[in-house]
Amino acid sequence: MAFQKTPAGTRGKSMPGVNSPFSKWINNMVLRRGRSKGRMMGMDVLVLHTTGAKTGQPRQTLLSWLPDGDNAWLVCASFGGNAKNPAWYHNIAAHPDQVEIEVGGRQVAVTPSQLTGAERDAAWQRITTKVPRFKGYETKTDRQLPIIRLTAAV
Questions:
Q1: Please, which residues have CB within 8 angstroms of residue 113's CB and are 6 or more apart in sequence?
Q2: pTM of the complete model
Q3: Between 2.170.130.30, 2.30.110.10, 2.40.40.20, 1.10.10.10, what CATH number should domain 38-152 receive?
Q4: Cβ-contact 128, 78 below 8 angstroms
Q5: CA dihedral in degrees (17, 18, 19, 24; nearest 10)?
Q6: How far is the C-alpha of 69 from the C-alpha of 54, rounded, in Å?
Q7: Per-residue model confidence as pLDDT tens for the chain (154 residues)
Q8: Residues 6 or more apart in contact with residue 108 via CB below 8 angstroms
């Protein structure tokens, strides 16, 4: 799968250093809790497995999701309204054939596709209706927040 990546913005919320030992410890703790509960901060969550765009190393990220029909999930590359796209988004673009998710106690190979146009707009409306905090992320940055559909591979 190839999709044209959404460019970074010129303004947005700055994020603390994600590579600090403390941030890594917090991320691992959140990942363990989200994996075991399937929910975090009132949202359904899944574990996204990707391959690092630069390192080639396995990566895991906890993401909120919405269902998109049978065997498909929507995720938004909001990064809290940061000016940049999150690392997992670049990982998907670099290695789209190496993406899996853990959801509902099972691991599923998925095919990612980035939504555009009216399809993206409809998905954005569904996301912000279900999880209103995403509207706030959109106001913090001038980039369009990418929405990715993860469809179970056949």
A1: 1, 3, 148, 149, 151
A2: 0.84
A3: 2.30.110.10
A4: no
A5: 130
A6: 33
A7: 456 777 777 777 766 555 666 666 666 666 666 565 666 667 788 999 999 999 999 999 889 999 999 899 999 999 888 888 999 999 999 999 999 999 988 899 999 999 999 999 999 999 999 989 899 999 999 999 999 999 999 7
A8: 71, 100, 101, 102, 152, 153
Q: Which two tokens stand for residue 60?
A: 């895991």
User: How far is residue 140's CA from residue 134's CA, in Å, rounded to a whole number?
Assistant: 10
Residue with tokens 């998907």: 92
